[in-house]
Amino acid sequence: MSKVSITVNGRATAHDVEDRTLLVHYLRDTLGLTGTHVGCDTSQCGACTVLLDGRAVKSCTLLAAQADGSSVTTIEGLAKDGVLHAVQAGFHQEHALQCGFCTTGMVMATVDLLSRNPSPNEQQIRHGLEGNLCRCTGYHNIVRGVQHAAHAMGSAPVAAD
Amino acid sequence: MYPASFEYHRATSVDDALGMLQRYGEDAKLIAGGHSLLPLMKLRLSTPAHLIDIRRIAGLSGVRENGGGVIVGATTTHSEVAASNFVRAKLPLLAEAAGGIGDPLVRNMGTIGGSLAHADPKADYPAVVLALRANVVVVGKSGRESMESDKTFTGMFTTAVQASEMITEVHFPVSGSGNGGAYEKLADPASGYATVGVAAQLKVEGGTISSAGVALTGFGPKATRLSAVEAALKGKPATNDTVRAAAKQAAPSGVTPYQANLACVYAERALIRALERATA
Amino acid sequence: MATIVEPTGALMGASIKRQEDGKFLTGRASFTDDIKLVGQTHAVFVRSPHAHARIRGIDAKAALGMPGVHAVLTGEDLKSSGVNPMPVGWLLPDIKIGEKHALAVGTARFVGEAVAVVVADTPALARDAADAVVVDYDVLPAAVEAVDALEPGAPQVHANAPGNVAFSWQIGDKAKTDSAFAGAKKVVRQRLVNQRLIANAIEPRASAAAFNLANGELTLYVTSQNPHVHRLIMGAFILGLPEHKFRVISPDVGGGFGSKIFVYPEECVVAWAAKRLERPVRWTATRSESFTTDAHGRDHVSDAEMAFDADGRIIGLRVKTVANMGSYLSLFAPCVPTYLYGTLLSGQYDIPAIHCEVTGVYTNTTPVDAYRGAGRPEACYLIERMVDIGARALGMDPVDLRRKNLVPAGSFPYQTQVALAYDSGNYEPALDKALEMLDYKKARAAQAAARKDGRLIGIGLSAYIEACGIAPSQVVGSLGAQAGLYESATVRVHPTGKVSVMTGSHSHGQGHDTTFAQLAASELGLGIDDVEIVHGDTGRVQFGMGSYGSRSAAVGGTAIYLAVQKVKDKGKQIAAHLLEASPADMDFADGKFFVKGSPSKAKAWGEVCLAAYLAHNIPANIEPGLETTSFFDPGNFTFPFGTHIAVVEVDPRTGHVELNRYVAVDDVGNVINPMIVDGQLHGGIAQGVGQALWEGATYDSNGQLITGSMINYALPKAENLPSFETARTVTPSPVNPLGVKGAGEAGAIAATAAVANAVVDALSPLGITHVDLPLTPERVWGAIQNAQKRS
What we know:
The complex is a heterotrimer. In chain A, 32% of the residues lie in helices and 16% in strands. By secondary structure, chain A is of the alpha+beta class. Chain A is globular. Chain A starts with a strand and ends in a 7-residue tail after the last helix. Chains in contact: A-B, A-C, B-C.
């Protein structure tokens, strides 16, 4: 057991957890933030994607203990005061989600992608999301959702993290 | 999905990490990004009793210059290597390979030290360090060794790094101008690992290939230097014809016709681009 | 009986953004694993590592002594407490059913079969203890490939299924077909493998059960496409739970594609254990578990022959299919390679003689059942490959050969040789539209030019038809279905005029919260926010059959439509009473009930609703309230159709296939929400392309699943797919008043053949006539090498 202190969505959290606790389970089970999902056990599907100190990572392939002292943003921390983040809004506008299970990870990965490349072309979007699997959409509308968000974020100041 | 129990320790310095490795012996493993180790632990294919986290040790991460060459700290992430303007300018082969490992999320955590120490036969970095004649700096209780890449990879998931030692940085020599390198990889559509990966680095002086480093990954127990290809390049005219002829030597023995074909095709593609960069 | 109603109002046919998106986008959905039960314990299953083994003993002593462990339970425990074997929901004549228990009793028959369950305080502790359960196995030889399992001397999977034959089935006229072949000008033959696939919905299966000691009610949360089916099968047939004391809630479900239709062992064990242990019990599959335990799909080996006359008309189709059913018959498995397959073998073509024989075979592998398309992709792949092979053999353009054989527009209803009668269809315009979108002439010219440079570009067509909205109940019942296939809707109008629609359909990605709200709101002149769609909870919704087989709009939507008409009828009666008019003189539009011809004599929707519930002034012969129910049993399937075209380039040096363009023209009848329908097509296309290029579940000779995780089972990724070009033709279905046909599976049905045909087309200058799926670089390169050796 170790005490793990992580700032999650801007709030300090501290809990004693088994050392083997994965970050995704800390978020889901200890903190009750179930928006981050587990879709596989070989670190491939990306449904568990969160931002760790600003970079998108697979929270199923991290120990909570590794994130001790770090800052994590989950899907629950994206919208501000009830206003959807441009990526969330873009996905909604373009029907970039169907069952919604991969969506939270896809959105977080997109946030990171656009922070590093604000105007990606289609190929860059498709490559940028290679760590996130979707079985429902065929990715067609996800690409459009990302483009929608990029366009919206390009024409307005981005809210600070 | 749930690893077996273990104790987690965070090392505050290299000495601290080495001390813990001593204390816990064979039951301990180092963890930085954890993207080679944790997947194994989740499937219970690896069950260390102690994990020593070295990710936040100061000074272990980052890219810096050293006498014209590039030094990459062991805990530098693949993303950082791929994005480094310095690496992209000096060693595009290294940046290119780093930028193709796994996926963007994996690259944000996976480290060069971790990848080299893990020595997956289908990983990308081992071929790159071989082709670039890099030296892997290994620190242990007996001191500091600058291990030649040729001596580093000894077998499937095995390296010459002892259980009580750790990699602290990787030195990539760069001399003068006329250098060009490229990495060509056929990624497995499921795992993203290299079904074949060829790292090629050429130095061209006066229209001749003065040195060549070519290495193959994805075949057999470990990444290997393609010495026959290198020999067919060194001293020859810096032309695509030379490259194409040399690439024909790329197939290791004892592989299927398809694998042999892939080795040659990817060697050729990597070398052509390396040549283009070397003569640009 | 149904006249087609044109979609009315601003909402029908509109791409309304989805009502349900908010919770998914903000991480506030409730997937089964998200739902916490107070005092819950966690189950981990002990699974057979052998494909076939006698279970000699299970030693749980060490496991029981480990921290946090509540129980270790086995198949014997279940059996002795009265838990029955798992039933089969479709019975074919002379079917041989190998008994399947939720936890294996006596024998394990596939790698991954559950033999025991550990219940503990946390999943990690349960896993630790599961590793400590010692099972003594007597390993037996395993039958793996269906074709091999039929060989004399093959290991027998079930003692009561001699020769490993689960069933034999045929359709069509054998004598007529043999005679057609005898007189044919040209016959082409091909062995076609439709490889085993794994659905891999991104949400793993999960279940969580709690038993209320006070009132004897069991509540089960489960990832199901059809919670009422789960309740009926589990309650009445397996666990002996009274249906009215058993509530099944399927909350948000993260994809199904068929794999979440079936009742699985895990939810049976979880529900039973919750009652037995008097603690809530939950389980969530790891992805590796999903690989071995989710029902697999496809796995046909077919010998197909197509006969042509001198003019290139298809005069006969003869098919022998061996269908791998796996180790046990999954819930709907017997109908998939029979009634959902053989009956589609005419495709879009007028084929005068067809005969198909299917042998369902037991093997020591994961059970096989419906996976997106369920039988229809197998049929489409077979026909469309044979048509292309025929075209090549006849020296005809594959487009011309298709055009020559399409059922003409004036020939509907068209009775096929394989039982189905297509009620409507208009195939040529869809074909033409697809060709136009592609610019077929230009594409062929580009292909010819590329060939001169040694580049291998290929163009492949897939003209598909499918049958969906499986019904009517009487017919499917006579064919062996152990269930009806209607759908239900209750429309509950609240006193203040808001509406709750309880539907037996249950979307798991298809957007029913939006499309059904569009339908109801449009019919009632309400805003979409005034309508709530309720689904997935047997405690709130009347019995329904769930969502699969592209049936939700056609059958579920129609049930809603009919219930809404009943609401309007009653509203007219009340309004007429209030207006002192005759109900026959009343109309309803723009949110008002009014007298025809005197629109000022009107009562608003809200007024009528309140009147119904106040009951102060309603006709003497009607009851208060405004709530109606409809169960809709369609008279026939619906028949969506279309033409898809794929353009690929094959790298001759590596065999790599790049899909460069994908054009899809689909006729799904009337469309409630085009955006949602397009989304369904995209997803289906991606899965069909996945089957063509990357996917395939393979076993070694010991029955070990080699492709046991996402590390070696390649799911389509964004970087490997292009954007799709889609369009529609609209031929409304005459079978339901909405004129909708269903779109959920179309992409998966058509795409595999389109891509396969394109790859073979690319390779055809080398003399290659067929390459099996998946078209991996190694396989394609090998075909090229072999062809070059031959020449």
